[in-house]
Design a protein that fits this description.
Layout: E1 14-16, H1 26-35, E2 40-46, H2 58-67, E3 71-77, H3 81-90, E4 95-99, H4 108-116, E5 121-126, E6 144-148, H5 163-177, E7 182-186, H6 194-200, E8 204-207, H7 209-212, H8 217-229
Parallel strand pairs: 1-8, 2-3, 3-4, 4-5, 5-6, 6-7, 7-8
Helix pairs in contact: 2-3, 5-6
The chain binds D-xylitol-5-phosphate (DX5) and zinc ion (ZN).
Residues 17, 42, 44, 75, 186, 206 line the site of zinc ion.
């Protein structure tokens, strides 16, 4: 099942995560993102079981899609992705990723198929302490790999520096296999670490707190993009 996303050159590599936002001014923030050419919103879905936090349901994906032009990148931090995938796709998610830590190796491809069969882009997610080799057998079958640079569950955590080496090892394997699989990184990303992630081979960057702490989204996004382009 060889279906990969080619990184179309004008895809904005910054994927804001709305987990850390103040929900009372979420609409204003999303308007800001829209004005600053953000293409994707990263929706952190938590079930209170795989991670110790609860967050959004499919209704959040539907609300974003019905109100804004964004695509939705649903990151499922859930113990039963096979049950949740159809609900988030039904709600309008464009990209869906699930954690390798909760699916038996023999079930990974059928779970990927639940996403690809609905013409959505499929991603596999690895926690910081899961070996990068875990995803090597699936690089031809998915559109992106999401490497967590924090342990999932909460925004605002400290970036785990070892992620840079993990990105480089994954990029090496993608090159050797000749697949188009993209590398997305998520957690604790800011202008002090995004350059080394890009240099190591990362394509897409999920950013929550660093964006939400900004009082000038346009300037912050420009700073981030300059760091990415500067590599
Ligand atoms: C953590 C989430 C991340 C996180 C990123 O479980 O997957 O998307 O919210 O946000 P920051 O940038 O705040 O670490
Ligand atoms: Zn996430």
């Amino acid at each position: 099942m060889k279906m990969n996303t080619t990184m179309n050159s004008n895809l904005n590599p910054v994927f804001p995560s709305i987990l850390s936002t103040n929900f009372f001014n979420l609409e204003a923030k999303l308007n800001d993102f829209e004005k600053n050419n953000i293409d994707f919103i990263h929706l952190d879905v938590m079930d209170g079981h795989f991670v110790g936090n609860l967050s959004f349901g499919p209704a959040a994906a539907a609300a974003i899609k019905s109100t804004f032009n964004f695509k939705v990148d649903a990151h499922l931090m859930v113990s039963n992705p096979a049950k949740m995938i159809p609900k988030f796709i039904q709600a309008g998610s464009d990209w869906v990723s699930f954690h390798m830590e909760v699916v038996d190796k023999g079930k990974v491809n059928e779970t990927i198929a639940l996403i690809k069969n609905q013409s959505c882009q499929a991603g596999l997610v690895l926690n910081p302490d899961s070996p990068v080799e875990t995803v090597f057998p699936f690089l031809e079958d998915v559109d992106f790999i999401l490497l967590m640079s924090v342990f999932p569950g909460y925004g605002g955590q400290k970036f785990i520096p070892g992620t840079v080496e993990k990105v480089a090892a994954l990029k090496q394997q993608i090159r050797e296999q000749g697949t188009q699989c993209l590398i997305q990184v998520d957690g604790g990303i800011n202008t002090s670490n995004i350059g080394s992630l890009k240099k190591a081979g990362a394509d897409l960057f999920v950013i929550g707190t660093f964006l939400y702490n900004s009082d000038d989204i346009a300037a912050t996004i420009n700073m981030i993009q300059d760091k990415i382009k500067g590599v």
